[in-house]
Amino acid sequence: MSRGRPAPLLEVRGLVKRYREGEGERTVLDGLELELAAGEFMVLLGRSGSGKSTLLNLISGIDRADAGTVRLDGADLGQLSERGRTLLRRDRIGFVYQFFNLIPILTVWENVLLPMEFAGRAPAAAVERARGILERVGLAARTDTYPDRLSGGEQQRVALVRALVHEPRLLLADEPTGNLDAASGAQVLQLLRELSRGRHAVLMVTHSEEAARVADRALVLEAGRLRPLQAGEP
Amino acid sequence: MKPRRRHWLVVSALLAGGALVVWLARPPEPPTAARPALEPVSVLSAAGGDFARVERPRAFVFPDDHGAHRDFRHEWWYFTGNLHGPEGQPLGYQLTLFRFALAAEPAAQVAGQRSAWATRQVYMGHLALADIGSGRFFPLQRFAREALGLAGAEADPLRVWLYDWEIAGLPGVEHGFRLRAREGGLGVDLELRAEKPPIAQGDAGVSRKGPEPGNASHYYSYTRLATRGTVWLDGQARAVSGASWMDREWGSSALGPDLAGWDWFALQLEDGSELMFYDLRRRGEPRRSPFSSGVWVAPAGRAVTLAPEAVEIEVRAHWTSPRTGVRYPSRWRLAVPELALELDIRPRLADQELDLAVRYWEGAVAVEGERAAGPVSGVGYVELAGYGASP
Amino acid sequence: MNRALARLSRRYLAAHPLQLALAVIGIGLGVAVAVAIAVASESARTAMRLSVEGIAGPVTHRLWGPPQGIDESLYVELRTRHGLSLAAPVLEGFLRRGERTVRVLGVDPLAELEIGRFGFAVGELDGGTSELMTTPGAVALTDATARALEVELGQRFAVEVAGRSRLLTARALFGGSALGAAAEDLLVMDIGAAQELFDQRGRLSWIDLTLEPAELESLGRLLPAGHKLEAVGARSETLESITRGFTLNLRALSLLALAVGALLIYNTLSFSVVQRRGQLGALRALGATRGQVFAMVMGESLGVAAIGTALGIGAGILLAQGLVHLVARTINDLYFVLSVTRLDLDPAVLAQGVALGLGVAVIAAMVPALEAANTRPQLALARSVIEQRSRRLLAWSSMLGLGLLAGGALLLLPEGFVWALAAVLLMMLGCAFLTPLAAAGILVPVERLLRRRFGLGASLAARGVSAALSRTSPAIAALSIAIAAAVGMGVMVESFRATVADWLDYHLQADAYVSVAGRYGTRQSAPLDPGLVARVAAMPGVQGLATWRGVEVDSQFGPSRLSVLGPGPRSRAGYRLLDPGGEAWERFLNGAVLVSESYGRRHGVGAGSDLVLVTASGPRTFAVAGVYFDYGSDRGYVLMERGQYLRHWPDSVISALGIYLEAGAELGPLLDRVHAGAGEDQRIVVRSNRDLREASLRIFDRTFTITRVLQLLAVAVAFVAVASALLAIQLERAREFAILRATGQTPAGLWALVLAQTGLMGLVAGLLALPSGGLLAVLLTDVVSVRSFGWTLHWQVPAGSVLGALGLAVGAALLAAVLPARRLARVPPALALRAE
Fold first, then answer.
1. Is C502 on the interface with B (CB under 8 A)?
2. CA of C732: how far to CAs of C14, C19, C23, C272, C762, in Å?
3. Chains in contact with B, where contact requires at least 3 CB pairs less than 8 Å apart
4. Which among B41, B2, B7 has a CA at the least distance from the CA of B248?
5. Interior CA angle at B19 toward B15 and B23, to 5°?
6. Helix axes C734-742, C705-732, angle to 10 degrees
7. Are B368 and B260 within 8 A, CB to CB?
8. Which residues pair with B123 in a beta bridge?
9. Which member of A42, A202, C104, C384 has the lowest number of beta carbons within 10 Å of its beta carbon?
């Protein structure tokens, strides 16, 4: 990575994660390697329980690996404190989950600004940006609504705005369409693609082939490692 | 009718205010309060007896009359004097013991039932020292009841006391006194010997205070008492000598409502004569009360009564008390044409105000002037009452 | 706290008003009880100080003489011979007007004028005060006192002095402002009149002095034997030390209520953390730091506590109004005459209340806040993980509990009453921390049993409690501590009462007792008419008399109560010795003294010790022949034989009589004759042995009223705790219940389930309260009582209180369950299911 090629945004080397399971142990990730360039849109496929969510947790510093390194935007997560990892997550990463994870007692607008307010008052530019993105996703009129008044697709769009409003370097998406009907899913996917292009890298875990098709690259997590998606799969 | 009324006025004010000065309910008006005199009489009558009254002349008998006259409402033993230390340091002193009866004595008491504290006789003492040299003035006050030997008056041998303040006779001296009073760093221990016999004031010892019969007191004075002894200032004993004046007075009646106050002068001149005059000031009336009076005592002891109109007094200066804000006269021209006497009287210390249970000015004065065209000087005491509300 | 998180907190709390309200009430009640007790005892303390210092004015020292007072000639001598100035003689006495005990100070208004007290200054007294000296029975009083005594200025009014009716006249009002509360229930009269009123001619209670240090020394040399100069401050300290044990006890009890309040906050918070686990995970994932989450939960706790504390302080002040009378009455019954008429709202005490409330909130929030901060930043965890975590907590809390118990036990080692109280608190806390373990220990077999006997449905009740131990155990602990306190104090009071009853049985040997009604003086009891004593002795049927005289004398330990006994025929049996045998009684009859148990323990004297008492002729050493059981006063007594007393004190007064009848003589007619013998003049109290015993027990019961009130308050707080815990649990499990409903459970069935669960919690709490209550009872009875009062108590476990504790626990739990159960049963299942 010293030969003129820019360092990748995300670099995962020899990642190992095991879980205790009754008496024994199960190795979920087993020497996994991954590089993700800035601006790249990558999709991860894999069966349930193959370790996709675990990988996202390790990349975002939510969980710690048993072995291996994760470097995000030049920082080695293993070297960071809990607080350091939290701040890295807050400033550089956006999340979109299958279950939206909006705070029900906050309005749409408050939910969107929440991560930035962890760092203090949201900067004016970010507030402007939030308005813009909400407009883009068609929810500008619903800012004072509480999440439980929204449809699933709308909720996920709010979550998407929340994930992007602080201009993260990396967007992690965990089955963002998994809980939506086909039409809503397609809409969310399209917005995700459009809003991301040229701005930040995306790592999306999904079952959806539709999603795999819009990606720059698609990998499959299998037996604790990644391999490229074969043509004609699954 | 030549009462030396100054104490009368003090006490009358107290009585008018509602029994004893110390129990005054409200801040009273000037001492010559316009309230009906003898207000507490209802209480007194209820207590089973009335006070004796001064109605006829009395031939004073000594030492008996030095003692207490408990049938009367009040009386006092009043000493003032100008002294000087071994190097001539000037000093003034006042020691007065007052007796008041809160009520007339009941006819009879059931012995053994009463507490030894039970009494109707109360004593008040004032001791004041004027350290003229250093310009300081120290007034003190005490109270006690005539019970258990805390305070009392006995005629023979003479002993009038209030706690450990005491006026006693001098053993073997017919007209002599020993004064002892100390408190803190202050005190006097003085021996007084009369240079002239006592004079009966007023009309054969009856000093009228108003037109009503019985409104009078018994009154005699020692106008010149050679004095020597010790004075304590700041705890330091100082040998002193000089001359004192003593007044004795008792009675039961109070003061008329028309009086505003009084200025009293007791002067001892170096030619061996003494002059006493009190000027009873009337409320809203520039002329002094016709009951104002005085006496001139010749060097040989002959007494000449001075009528109110025989004396001219002109106030030449005033002094305002920084303590109480009361404005007192502070320099006088006093002339007695019939004696060819004209005097300039100045306080030896401006601040000789006693802001005690009763507020008055009582201070040592120096006198310069002329008598029969020759120069004369002397010392004395002046009392000023009724110039400002009592505390 | 972070703005966004603060907003989140507010929204959450606003969305759960009931939980919030319960937590606020819990902490509020806890603070209220603590503040009320603190304010009440502080007010009593202030009143105590005021009774000494309030009337002191510029006085620096007080000259005391022998118990029967100072000879007034000493005062005269000091003033006229030794030139002592600023000295004021005082004769103090007490009289009754209706139900009120009124303090009387006989003073010399002229001496007071010099030192400027009681408004005896020019211009301050209302007119006519000279009548104090001239009118027999004239008194000066404040407006407030006049109203309280229902007298008007100028009115003659009847009072009772040492059982005799007397007429006084309200002659003057004084502005009590300078005296503050000390002027309340205070009559000032001339000292001569006071001497006549109290029949104390020639005597002064004390002489007040304003002394310079130099004068102090020279005056000290002048004093005759048996006299003592005491700084005014030292006097009030003496009074305070006398009641210190009592007020400390009260404060310790009040902390118990606060501890229960703390459990309540813990409960509310830990539930809110569990309920929001998913949300907290998302917050963490979105970038909230641990510190921010910790601060959020802590902030919630502080917010709740702030509201609760504010309310609690207000409620505490209200509560104190009532408590202060109980405290004052107890002090009057046990120690000395004290009139507490106003609350002393010392800002320091209120600040303490605030600190307690907030401090408790911080401590209570620590565990839930840490738990919240450690929430993994992701989606909600599976339930089993939560309970695994709480299993770890269980191990933790059990260890902590054992540690606290051990620590408490260690604290028992050093002597001293405060240590014992601290030990009690630590050990109760230890019991609270052991609750989860103990609850699990009870619930698991219960669950198994239920399942075997009644099937799965029934066992759900037990499982519901045990599966949510992290939330149920604080509630159980709160309830169980409150019940334990009830049991412990119940056993203590019962043992105490039984002990006292037993003591009265043998102590009251005479067949009838005669004494004078009402309070009389600070340092001596009211005298009986000597003529009456002689007449009673001569009455037919009287075998003999025992006489008593109570005075206060100085000793090497400060003021001591001296009980002077003229022994009667069976007096010996009335005094049981801790160490029976030996010749103690014979030695007592021959000049040695006996001391009561509390006196002995308080001052560390016993058989073989020497005791220095200041007699009328100066200090004398007396041998202590033995220690006897006595429950009359926790200050204790020195008992001296009358002949011995008369040798050292010229005081032949008798204040009480015990009458022994000849065999076959009848009591009733004799009592009538005694009454007749007393005549109209002195109102005496003649009581048969049985009446006196009952009257004594009545006073005993009255004394413990305040303890019972506190018990009830603690239970009330616990009740709120249980209600809040139940509410939390049931709401959390709404979905579970919805499923039950959806699968066919009727609302009634759900009711039954909820009630069964809460009843079970109550039962567990009740069962756990038995050992901890027993422990508390042992500590209170065998340790605290001995150390604080110096009394050995004999154990008495009332069966009723054990069953009562269980019943109370279950009852409180069931009652607390009504609200949540109603709520749950009403919710349609579909709504609850959709809520997820």
1. no
2. 17, 12, 17, 9, 19
3. C
4. B7
5. 115
6. 60
7. no
8. B99, B144
9. C384
Query: Are residues A101 and C12, on separate chains, in Cβ contact within 8 Å?
Result: no
| Residue A142, CA distances (Å) to A37, A123, C28 in order | 35, 21, 41
Question: Can you tell me the distance from the alpha carbon of C429 to that of C89, in angstroms, rounded to the nearest whole number?
Answer: 54
Decide if A117 and C4 are in contact by the 8 Å CB cutoff. Answer: yes
Question: Residue C681, Cα to own-chain centre: how many angstroms?
Answer: 38
Mean per-residue pLDDT for C26-54? 78
Length of chain A in residues, anyone? 234
Is the CB of residue A200 less than 8 Å from the CB of residue A37? Answer: no
- Please tell me the distance from the alpha carbon of residue C471 to that of residue A226, in angstroms, as a whole number: 44
The residues, any chain, with a CB within 8 Å of residue B302's CB and separated by 6 or more, are none
Tell me the C-alpha distance between B220 and B201, whole Å.
5
| Cβ-Cβ contacts under 8 Å for A54 (sequence gap 6 or more) | A17, A28, A29, A63
C426 vs C233, higher pLDDT: C426
- Placement of tokens 């050679």 in the chain: B226
Task: Kindly list the residues from chain A whose CB atom is less than 8 angstroms away from the CB atom of residue C294.
Answer: none
Q: Residue B191 corresponds to which tokens in the numbers above?
A: 């021996």
- Complex confidence, ipTM: 0.83
Tens-place pLDDT, residues B160-194: 999 999 999 999 898 999 999 998 889 999 999 99
Is the pLDDT at B226 greater than 70? The verdict is: yes
d(Cα B12, Cα B100) in Å, to the nearest integer?
11
pLDDT classification of B29: cutoffs 50, 70, 90:
very low
Mean confidence (pLDDT) of chain B? 82
> What contacts C486, CB < 8 A, 6 or more positions away?
C711, C714, C715, C769, C773, C801, C804, C805, C808
Q: Can you list the pairs that B197-201 forms with residues at least 24 positions away whose Cβ atoms lie under 8 Å?
A: B197/B301, B198/B60, B198/B62, B198/B222, B198/B248, B199/B223, B199/B295, B199/B297, B199/B301, B199/B303, B200/B60, B201/B2, B201/B3, B201/B4, B201/B295
Q: Which of B219, B195, B204 is nearest to B297 (CA)?
A: B195
The chains in contact with chain C, meaning 3 or more Cβ pairs closer than 8 Å, are A, B
- Which pLDDT tens digit goes with each residue over C388-426? 555 677 788 889 889 999 998 888 888 776 787 778 878
Pairing of strands C610-615, C618-628: antiparallel
pTM of the model: 0.65
Question: Can you read off the two tokens belonging to residue B275?
Answer: 């002059």
Instruction: Taking the CA atoms of C28, C30, C36 and C38 in sequence, report the sign of the dihedral they define.
Output: negative
Place of tokens 């021209």: B333
pLDDT value at residue C127: 43
A60 chain-C contacts, CB cut-off 8 A: 285
Q: Under 8 Å CB-to-CB from C63, ≥6 apart: which residues?
A: C70, C206, C207, C208, C209, C223, C227, C228, C229, C230
In this predicted structure, the answer to whether residue C89 has a pLDDT above a threshold of 50 is: yes
Distance CA C2, CA A120 (A): 7
Give the lowest-confidence range in A161-170, B238-247, C188-197: A161-170
Give the pLDDT confidence of C288-335 residue by residue, as tens digits: 888 888 888 888 888 888 888 899 888 888 888 877 777 777 776 666
The CA distance from B122 to B103, in Å, is 10
CB neighbour burial string for A184-213, b if at least 16 within 10 angstroms, e if fewer: bbbbbbebbeebbeeebbbbbbbbbeebbe
Q: Strand locations in chain A, DSSP E?
A: 10-21, 24-36, 41-45, 67-72, 75-76, 93-96, 170-174, 201-205, 217-222, 225-228
Is C768 in contact with C475 (CB distance < 8 Å)?
A: no
* CB neighbourhood size of A228 (10 A): 10
Give the C-alpha separation, C442 to C438, whole Å. 6
Comparing C527 with B23, which gets the higher pLDDT?
C527
Residues 6+ apart with CB under 8 A from C395: none
